[in-house]
């Protein structure tokens, strides 16, 4: 189907090749998962397939690309539109029109497909994606998962044999991501479409994929079975990690396989050692919010929530989209609306003592270099010059102060905003979906940073969908639903017993309440 | 599928230079823009050359309201004859939307078009005269579409804004830093008054149509010597807009360009060269 | 078309929205008719007809509610026109309604402010203001009736790119408004001590404008990539010959239109009589022919410029019987007024301020013609947002 031969790519002004001597053969009807660290060249590889790299991005590319045996090396992306369908990360940013039906028809209009055929294909695609009821809806009113399905549909109408997706689920919540992965699986199985998909959250796609293409830091690419290649790319789902560490062969990819293999382990091991009890809230110490009520018009987002978090504790807010996590964080900070309730920090009104890092941290950045941003924060907080820059260097050592903030990686941007927000050393730190767009390494760094904040006595509250991250990072979990607290307790109690929120290790080991690979390995006595 | 491994020296090489956002203004495009601008200006100045003839003065604004859009469309057709590359098209669309979206943000004291102006001047400067011309047209048309505000005033606003954008693109290319900012601020002031004058020129014959028999002192007198009408128009413009709105617009332009100019220029230039 | 006349009528009544060009043609026709007269009776009739058509045939899209603003604008224009006469004089004569002191001259040549307000001045202002207002209402009707997005979808091939820019602008606008809100909200997070003065204001505006702009431009890059990958891009390379033809046609057309307008307005060319009669309708201004030639050149130029494009439309609007009826009714309305203006009763269109205005049967026919779309076109297809209210008969 797709054959890439000796592909080497270098962008203008770059000092080294982003991809070097890549050879890849992708047979018809396969789903291949492309993995690699942020900035490793995943997007470059995907963009090369339909020649957006280098025709759109500029650069020098050596090598040959064959589609179904035809040499398309020099074709323009436009000529390949009906052979390679490409879907980006943020569906909304790629929409040209504003309603579902028009978006589906756009590509066909460009290629001059006859109106009658266009009509039929739009109808078929609507049914294939199960979105016929959304046909005349405005795209902005759709949920993230629906938007991504429309984006996939908008290239499917051109009936490409190969679909290329660049992190299609990274901006989605778990449920929406599940919908998208299920759709991909159906395309591969029912229509025989070949799919090439890049993804950070490997655990979402690994079950559906036939092979893994790993883009290595030096720009080379290897492909093979998931179990062999995922570790090399530095993104390993917990089940796989567990299997590798315990020497299981074949290494399980699914919870089901791992659970079968772990039967012996479950009978051999006792329950995990008890966690230290959560410290009881102390009066006039830490964050103390009572009766917080947030309404947007008639809709109640947060319905009278009480939340007390002592200093040094890391508390997670979990719950589906729209359950009020963000509204609660913004109300705690004081920048968002709050119709009733009090927020006190160390016994005093909370205003000015709370830092919040929003979902899209880049919204806070407006100067031209990292150093300027830091100097601005110093000035605002009345700190001696250079303090924030020093704090940033502690968080992430490899940031160049002269860089444009927008050119940083997601993890670096997050760290920068965190450093800026910590400039006045507020006792309470709130993080809204901090793991969005982070790769495994960046998440590990974030876990360390949060632990360090807690050690210094900050209160940390973070909202997240990522249960694996929560299990590694937090000591307490608060579950929100419909704006109310429906669960609150130590992380193990809340996550291990829930069918939805359980981590992969918890599912493998249930009813034993292990959460992370690390603690299980310690208990099993294998070197970690 | 058989796997063939060619010797690396036979491999095709695809070397693509960094593209730029912008539209060419040469050859036919330049000619059409020049001729159309001259014709449009001559038509806009009809109150000064129109002879006294019954009915002509009443018909002129309406005839113009039909012809001017056509002339604008002809120019747009020529400018996009080669096709816009996708990036230029996207930047045009996004900046047009931005002009419409920024209006309410910059808040009170910024009446209507001013925010459009300052981004228009900066974008014209960065992306060139033809882009400025297109952006002037599309910005005003987009915001008219979004507010369902398409009316007889629109073609005149579009032409005037297009000239403003084009003029910004024609400022000396070499100037950078303080000199550039000085040029832009100077141009911002001049274009604010020029835009106001053009709009007054449109409204004057409509609002101050000569009353038969006893024309008022500011009324347009069809067939009177150009100097006489010019005097009347100057008084009309001064009273209705130049002293008030236009000065406000000039001040807003100046302040916005001084405060935001360098930052926005940097952002636009960063977007103009793609990675 | 199968079936009886009755079947066909029922089919034609199936709710749908008309081709936007039909509504624009109709509204420009009525606007052109209104621009020809200061007769308040005719103007009021025309406005009433337009309001009736709008309230019967507009849909429930967001653009449909803009009509009220046009009505307000029309009222505002009438008031401005009258105030202008009161403040700055002109049209003196008739009874003094309100004696006001006259302020001294401010400008060489006798600019004065205030002075006696006379009935002639006020009536003059009213008549002219009414004409201006009526034209605005007619154009506003098109804004309310025609779906602006369908209008963009109907642009000729030569203007495809410009249409695409506007489609993108409309699409991105909603997202940008969100982005502005988000950034403004985020700004509250950055510990800015309350401050005053230019420096503080600078910081505030910059902290909103720069992230929104950067975000928007980053977005435009992704959008462009998505468009490229989905086949956007004109067939490469228009030939040299084609460019020559297009350029020549466009320049010729601009020159002809400009000269034609000049010739028509200043009567520069001697009148040409095409029929042996003295009546005004038997004479033709050759300037009109020049204008027509310019229009023809423009049409050919558009065709030539759009030749290279191969694109199709999903569910294109077509010009059907109802569309032609609408378009022709607007043009017929204008034609009737134009015929009257060239006939012996032309004075009725421009009555003085001292006599009560009157109407002729022909002039009553004009608004009646413009009313036809309210009866002969299918009702609008509603998107459903306001269905219950509309079904209850309440199109407020």
TrEMBL record, chain A:
GO CC terms: ATP-binding cassette (ABC) transporter complex
**Signal peptide location in the record?**
none
User: Do you know which CDD domains this protein is assigned to?
Assistant: ABC_cobalt_CbiO_domain1 (cd03225)
Q: Which keywords, in A-to-Z order, does the entry hold?
A: ATP-binding, Nucleotide-binding, Transport
Q: Which residues form the ABC transporter domain?
A: 2-242, 287-507
Q: Specify one Pfam family.
A: ABC_tran
Presence of the UniProt keyword Transport in the record: yes
What the entry lists under InterPro entries is as follows:
AAA+_ATPase, ABC_transporter-like_ATP-bd, ABC_transporter-like_CS, ABC_transpr_CbiO/EcfA_su, ECF_ABC_transporter_ATP-bd, P-loop_NTPase
Classify the source by domain of life. Bacteria
Report the GO molecular function annotations: ATP binding; ATP hydrolysis activity; ATPase-coupled transmembrane transporter activity
**Which family does the record assign?**
Belongs to the ABC transporter superfamily.
Q: Which PANTHER family match?
A: HEAVY METAL TRANSPORTER
What is the protein name stated in its UniProt record? ATP-binding cassette domain-containing protein
Automatic annotation (TrEMBL), chain C:
Where is this protein localized, as stated in its record? Membrane
Q: Does the keyword Membrane apply?
A: yes
A matching Pfam family: CbiQ
How does the protein's chain sit in the membrane according to the entry? Answer: Multi-pass membrane protein
Keyword set includes Transmembrane = yes
User: Which residue ranges does UniProt annotate as crossing the membrane?
Assistant: 40-57, 69-87, 158-177, 244-268, 288-310, 322-341, 353-376
- Signal sequence extent: none
Keyword field: Membrane, Transmembrane, Transmembrane helix
GO cellular component terms? plasma membrane
The domain of life for this entry's organism is Bacteria
This protein's name: Energy-coupling factor transporter transmembrane protein EcfT
| Gene source species | Auraticoccus cholistanensis
């Amino acid at each position: 189907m797709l054959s890439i031969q000796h592909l080497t790519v270098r962008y203008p002004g770059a000092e080294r090749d982003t991809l070097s001597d890549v050879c890849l053969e992708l047979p018809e009807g396969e789903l291949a998962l492309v993995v690699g660290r942020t900035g490793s060249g995943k997007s470059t590889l995907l963009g090369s397939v339909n020649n957006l790299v280098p025709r759109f991005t500029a650069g020098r590319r050596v090598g040959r690309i064959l589609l179904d045996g035809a040499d398309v090396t020099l074709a323009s992306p436009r000529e390949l539109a009906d052979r390679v369908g490409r879907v980006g990360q943020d569906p909304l940013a790629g929409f040209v029109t504003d309603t579902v039906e028009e978006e589906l028809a756009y590509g066909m209009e460009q290629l001059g497909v006859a109106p009658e055929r266009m009509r039929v294909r739009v109808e078929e695609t609507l049914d294939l994606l199960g979105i016929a009821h959304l046909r005349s809806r405005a795209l902005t009113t759709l949920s993230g998962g629906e938007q991504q399905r429309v984006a996939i549909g908008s290239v499917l109408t051109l009936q490409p044999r190969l679909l290329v997706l660049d992190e299609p689920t990274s901006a989605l919540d778990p449920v929406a991501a599940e919908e998208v992965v299920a759709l991909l699986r159906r395309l591969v199985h029912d229509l025989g479409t070949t799919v090439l998909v890049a993804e950070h959250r490997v655990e979402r796609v690994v079950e559906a994929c036939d092979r893994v293409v790993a883009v290595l830091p030096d720009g080379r690419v290897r492909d093979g079975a998931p179990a062999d290649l995922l570790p090399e790319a530095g993104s390993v789902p917990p089940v796989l990690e567990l299997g590798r560490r315990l020497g299981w062969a074949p290494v399980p990819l699914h919870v089901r396989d791992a659970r079968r293999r772990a039967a012996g382990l479950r009978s051999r091991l006792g329950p995990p050692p008890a966690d230290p009890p959560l410290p009881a809230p102390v009066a006039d110490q830490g964050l103390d919010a009572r009766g917080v009520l947030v309404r947007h018009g008639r809709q109640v987002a947060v319905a009278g929530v009480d939340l007390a978090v002592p200093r040094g504790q890391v508390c997670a807010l979990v719950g589906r989209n729209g359950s009020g996590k963000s509204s609660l964080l913004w109300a705690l900070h004081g920048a968002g609306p709050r119709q009733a309730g009090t927020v006190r920090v160390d016994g005093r009104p909370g205003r000015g003592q709370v830092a919040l890092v929003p979902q899209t941290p880049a919204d806070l950045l407006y100067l031209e270099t990292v150093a300027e941003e830091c100097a601005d924060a110093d000035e605002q907080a009345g700190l001696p010059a250079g303090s924030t820059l020093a704090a940033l260097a502690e968080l992430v050592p490899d940031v160049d102060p002269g860089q444009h903030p927008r050119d940083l990686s997601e993890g670096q941007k997050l760290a920068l905003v965190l450093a800026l927000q910590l400039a006045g050393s507020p006792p309470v730190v709130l993080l809204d979906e901090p793991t969005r767009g982070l790769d495994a390494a960046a998440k590990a760094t974030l876990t360390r940073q949060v632990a360090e904040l807690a050690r210094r006595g900050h209160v940390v509250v973070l909202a997240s969908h990522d249960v694996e991250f929560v299990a590694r990072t937090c000591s307490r979990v608060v579950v929100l639903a419909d704006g109310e607290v429906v669960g609150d307790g130590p992380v193990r109690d809340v996550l291990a017993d829930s069918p939805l929120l359980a981590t992969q290790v918890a599912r493998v080991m249930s009813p034993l309440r292990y959460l992370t690979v690390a603690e299980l390995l310690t208990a099993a006595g294998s070197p970690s | 599928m058989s796997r063939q491994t060619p010797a690396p020296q036979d491999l095709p090489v695809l070397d693509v230079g960094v593209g730029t956002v912008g539209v060419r203004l040469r050859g036919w495009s330049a000619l059409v823009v020049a001729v159309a601008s001259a014709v449009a200006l001559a038509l806009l100045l009809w109150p000064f050359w129109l002879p006294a003839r019954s009915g002509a003065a009443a018909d002129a604004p309406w005839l113009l309201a039909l012809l001017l859009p056509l002339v604008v469309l002809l120019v747009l057709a020529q400018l996009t004859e080669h096709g816009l590359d996708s990036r230029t098209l996207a930047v045009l669309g996004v900046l047009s939307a931005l002009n419409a979206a920024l209006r309410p943000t910059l808040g009170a004291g910024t009446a209507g078009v001013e925010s459009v102006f300052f981004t228009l001047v900066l974008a014209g400067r960065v992306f060139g005269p033809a882009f400025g011309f297109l952006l002037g047209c599309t910005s005003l048309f987009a915001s008219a579409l979004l507010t369902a505000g398409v009316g007889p005033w629109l073609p005149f606003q579009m032409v005037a804004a297009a000239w403003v954008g084009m003029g910004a693109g024609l400022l000396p290319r070499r100037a950078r830093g303080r000199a550039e900012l000085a040029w832009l601020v100077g141009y911002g002031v001049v274009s604010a008054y020029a835009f106001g004058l053009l709009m007054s020129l449109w409204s004057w014959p409509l609002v101050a149509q000569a009353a038969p028999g006893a024309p008022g002192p500011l009324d347009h007198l069809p067939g009177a010597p150009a100097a006489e009408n010019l005097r009347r128009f100057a008084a009309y413009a001064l009273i209705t807009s130049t002293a008030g709105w236009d000065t406000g617009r000039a001040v807003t332009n100046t302040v916005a360009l001084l405060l935001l100019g360098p930052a926005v220029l940097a952002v636009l230039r960063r977007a103009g060269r793609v990675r | 078309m199968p079936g009886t006349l009755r079947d066909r009528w029922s089919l034609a009544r199936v709710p749908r929205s008309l081709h936007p060009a039909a509504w624009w043609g109709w509204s420009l026709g009525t606007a052109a008719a209104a621009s020809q007269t200061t007769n308040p009776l005719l103007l009021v009739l025309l406005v009433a007809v337009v309001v009736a058509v709008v309230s019967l045939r507009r849909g429930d899209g967001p653009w449909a509610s803009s009509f009220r603003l046009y009505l307000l604008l029309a009222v505002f224009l009438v008031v401005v026109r009258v105030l202008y006469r009161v403040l700055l004089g002109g049209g003196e004569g008739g009874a003094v309604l309100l004696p006001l002191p006259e302020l001294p001259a401010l400008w060489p040549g006798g600019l004065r402010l205030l002075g006696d307000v006379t009935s002639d001045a006020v009536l003059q202002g009213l008549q002219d203001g009414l004409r201006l207002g009526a034209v605005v209402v007619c154009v506003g009707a098109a804004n309310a009736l025609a779906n602006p997005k369908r209008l963009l979808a109907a642009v000729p091939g030569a203007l495809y790119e410009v249409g695409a820019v506007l489609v993108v602008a409309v699409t991105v606008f909603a997202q940008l408004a969100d982005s502005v809100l988000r950034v403004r909200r985020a700004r509250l997070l950055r510990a800015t001590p309350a401050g005053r003065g230019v420096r503080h204001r600078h910081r505030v505006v910059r902290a909103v404008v720069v992230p929104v702009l950067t975000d928007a431009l980053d977005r435009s890059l992704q959008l462009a990539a998505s468009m490229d990958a989905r086949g956007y891009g004109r067939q490469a390379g228009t030939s040299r010959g084609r460019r020559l033809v297009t350029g020549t046609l466009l320049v010729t057309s601009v020159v002809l239109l400009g000269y034609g307008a000049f010739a028509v307005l200043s009567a520069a060319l001697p009148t040409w009589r095409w029929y042996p009669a003295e009546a005004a309708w038997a004479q033709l201004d050759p300037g009109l022919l020049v204008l027509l030639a310019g229009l023809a050149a423009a049409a050919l130029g558009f065709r030539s410029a759009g030749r290279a494009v191969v694109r199709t439309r999903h569910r294109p609007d077509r010009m059907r019987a109802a569309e032609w009826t609408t378009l022709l009714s607007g043009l017929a309305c204008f034609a009737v007024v134009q015929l009257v203006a060239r006939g012996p009763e032309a004075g009725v269109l421009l009555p003085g301020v001292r006599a009560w205005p009157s109407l002729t049967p022909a002039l009553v026919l004009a608004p009646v013609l413009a009313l036809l779309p309210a009866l002969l076109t299918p009702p609008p297809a509603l998107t459903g947002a306001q269905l219950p209210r509309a079904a209850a008969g309440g199109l407020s």
